[in-house]
Amino acid sequence: MVTFYRKLPKFNYLAPKTIDEALSSLSQYKGRAKVIAGGTDVLPKLKRREIKAPEYIIDLKGIRDLDYIEYDDSSGLSLGALATIHAVETSPIIQEKFSVLFHAAESMASPQVRNRGTIAGNICNAVPSADTAPALLTLEARLRLVNQRGERIVNIEDFFTGPNETCLTDEEILQEIQVSNLPPHSRGRYLKLTPRRSMDLAMVGVAVVVVADDGICSDIRIALGAVAPTPIRARQAENIVRGQKLSGELIERAAWRAAEECRPISDHRASAEYRREMVKVLTKRAINQAISYSR
Predict the structure, then answer these.
(1) Fewest 10 Å CB contacts: which of 64, 189, 223, 252?
(2) Within a domain: 221
(3) How far apart are CA 221 and CA 186, in angstroms?
(4) What is the pTM of this model?
(5) How far apart are CA 118 and CA 251, in angstroms?
(6) pLDDT tens digits for 145-164?
(7) What is the CATH number of the domain that holds 32?
(8) Which of 53, 71, 68 is nearest to 19 (CA)?
């Protein structure tokens, strides 16, 4: 029998106004504190007792300097830790130049969650089914992690270390997501399989970025979610298409290879066999839609 708890467990709540204040608290209470941005993942888990309550919750929501979406023609896109899913979904520059991230954001949860939740929080939660993770993998995003002693830049592919696990240390905060400009003739698509149109986690998620001109694919990036312990790139499938003239047969071969590269599990939502089959279907569909959208 499952028991649902409606009250949050007790913890000390901290609301810093600057990033330095947040980092100081995180260092002071090292190992005893948890950072939240929107809190849409952490707080429900605390209510359901799925995770142990930390002694301190450090809420970043009051740090206005972290709430931004910036774009530069030379350096590309920068998302602050408090950039909400809704802000990404409605950003004209993201819709135009980073469409795979737009599609991932618009597919998520409910309007209430998208208005509160953040892109940074979605990837820091590190569930294998996180919608923005495959999209950011295809964009080859870089993450700026900061602590009191300095900062480091981590490629997003190295960020996820296991289910619900990242390379973040107890004293670090993900301050910024950085994405370089894509080459000309690039378009992206994110598709996911869920029992319902909204509010459900992805049983399978596929993100694709295709760079194609005159029917020749100069580059392609394929990323999969919910079918391995972490979101992954399907590099063998990419190699089948890259540098080739696009055709239905070629895309079919790549979709089959993507299905072979994933490592799904069977659970109450779907069997491993069904997930693998849906990787094939969604990969083929995402590539075709990206190509069609780019014309």
Answers:
(1) 64
(2) yes
(3) 11
(4) 0.94
(5) 33
(6) 999 999 999 999 999 999 99
(7) 3.30.43.10
(8) 68
